[in-house]
């Protein structure tokens, strides 16, 4: 199964709904990838409003 990204929180995952925010507003058309290891101290995490570590898509269509 291909990876999908959540349109709500940009989390990348396998499955039919986002394990992070439970949203079903998801897409398999995404680009860019950021891995957030330490959201407290990550400038990217702040810009993208990410509060949990994980893998995120930069753009979700
Ligand atoms: Zn989500």
Task: Tell me about this structure.
This protein is mainly beta and 61 residues long. The protein has one domain (4-60): Rubrerythrin, domain 2 (Single Sheet), CATH 2.20.28. It has one helix spanning 43-47; strands at 4-6, 12-13, 26-27, 30-36, 54-60. A three-stranded antiparallel sheet has the order 2-1-3, with no helix packed on it. The protein has a two-stranded antiparallel ribbon with strand order 4-5. The radius of gyration is 11 Å and the shape is globular. The two termini are 19 Å apart. The model has no long low-confidence stretch (mean pLDDT 94).
In the sheet with the most strands, the strands line up as 2-1-3
Helical content class:
under 10%
Instruction: Give the averaged pLDDT, no decimals.
Output: 94
Q: Which oligomeric state applies?
A: single chain
Entry keywords:
Rubrerythrin, domain 2, mainly beta, globular, about 10% helix, binds zinc ion, about 60 residues, 3-stranded antiparallel beta sheet, two-stranded antiparallel ribbon
Please sum up the structure shown.
The protein has 61 residues and is mainly beta. It has one helix and five strands; from the N terminus they run E-E-E-E-H-E.
């Amino acid at each position: 199964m291909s990876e999908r990204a959540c349109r709500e929180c940009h989390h990348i995952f396998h499955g039919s709904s986002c394990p992070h925010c439970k949203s079903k507003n998801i897409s398999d058309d995404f680009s860019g990838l950021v891995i957030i290891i330490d959201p407290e101290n990550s400038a990217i995490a702040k810009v993208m409003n990410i509060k949990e570590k994980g893998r995120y898509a930069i753009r979700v269509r």
